[in-house]
């Protein structure tokens, strides 16, 4: 009877601790203890579909430590002896940003790696390829222009620290099948307002293209020689062997993109390759917190399909998820090897 009462009280205390959102009590002790073993490399992963291949990877060794906080689960372990923390973000930019901010606020993090699958806007790339984008943007922050106004007309609140016409716009009328104008008119792409940790509080800066860490990017180019999986089974294989490739740009939006016309627009207008729903959230938080980050996104389909009836994502998404994990694990091995070489030079 006493044991049952104790367990009930413990669960109640922990739930109260979680509900108030403050870090104290048992959770604070666990976080403080965990940080004594840091710093860690943080891995932000969209969902369990993409996390499970890492949990099953032989190079990932779980420490069995798990800390649950604010609805998130932080898993601790090592990859090639590098201490890591895994956190599942969930779908979309808000989830990705929240998970990343919690990770950086709670724990001693030396850098962030984000990985997963993505749609593809680049006709020169193929399913299964793993992209390393040099820059990321959030491409669904729009100023939607009223009908009748055009590129020559100023936007509402345009000016210093306001909306801009500098990034570019999408004219819906350009995609009308009957050649007529479109009441949806134009949407203008806008930069995010960011608050760098080393900036002035309440003083915003504008950011549209967020660069990944230059050091991580340079190191990751070695991965372009990595052999990736190309078959689901003995009878279903990719027609083109997948590769690891560095691309100029990727973009995120709270939109599952499966439309060929918009895919072509993004590639032609901005030279975008991977299109998905989370990386820009991770990028914006790391950029503001001045924490190194890099993203590996494996292409699961050509957004909009090669034809109106194709749906390659259903077939090859598992293979693409595996390839994104392969690249992530090998990147961490490169980080570990480089650290060990530097350590040896100090002796």
From TrEMBL:
Nucleoside phosphorylase domain span: 46-332
First and last residue of the signal peptide: 1-21
Single Gene Ontology MF annotation: catalytic activity
GO biological-process terms attached to the record: nucleoside metabolic process
The entry's keywords: Signal
Protein name: Nucleoside phosphorylase domain-containing protein
UniProt organism field: Lactuca saligna
């Amino acid at each position: 009877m006493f044991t049952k009462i104790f367990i009930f009280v413990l669960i109640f205390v922990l739930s109260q601790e979680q509900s108030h959102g403050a870090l104290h009590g048992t959770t604070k002790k666990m976080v403080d203890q965990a940080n004594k073993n840091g710093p860690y490399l943080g891995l932000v992963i969209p969902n369990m579909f993409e996390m499970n291949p890492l949990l099953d990877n032989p190079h990932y060794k779980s420490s069995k430590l798990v800390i649950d906080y604010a609805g998130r689960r932080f898993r601790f372990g090592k990859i090639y002896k590098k201490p890591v923390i895994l956190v599942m973000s969930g779908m979309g930019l808000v989830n990705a940003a929240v998970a990343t901010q919690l990770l950086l606020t709670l724990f001693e993090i030396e850098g962030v790696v984000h990985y997963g699958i993505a749609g593809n806007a680049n006709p020169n790339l193929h399913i299964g390829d793993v992209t390393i984008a040099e820059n990321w943007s959030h491409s669904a922050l729009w100023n939607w222009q009223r009908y009748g106004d055009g590129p020559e007309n100023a936007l509402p609140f345009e000016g210093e620290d306001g909306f801009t016409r500098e990034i570019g716009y999408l004219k819906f009328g350009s995609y009308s099948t009957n050649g007529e104008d479109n009441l949806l008119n134009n949407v203008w792409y806008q930069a995010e307002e960011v608050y760098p940790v080393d900036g002035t509080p309440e003083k915003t800066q504008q950011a549209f293209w967020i660069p990944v860490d230059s050091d991580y990017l340079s190191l990751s180019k070695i991965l372009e020689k990595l052999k990736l999986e190309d078959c689901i089974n003995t009878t279903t294989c990719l027609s083109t062997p997948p590769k690891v490739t560095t691309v100029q740009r990727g973009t995120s939006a709270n939109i599952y993109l499966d439309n060929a016309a918009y895919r072509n627009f993004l590639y032609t207008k901005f030279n975008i390759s991977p299109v998905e729903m989370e990386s820009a959230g991770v990028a914006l938080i790391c950029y503001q917190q001045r924490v190194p980050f890099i993203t590996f996104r494996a292409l699961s389909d050509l957004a909009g399909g090669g034809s109106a009836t194709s749906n390659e994502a259903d077939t090859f998404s598992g293979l693409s998820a595996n390839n994104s994990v392969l690249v992530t694990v090998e990147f961490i091995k490169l980080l570990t090897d480089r650290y060990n070489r530097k350590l040896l030079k100090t002796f």
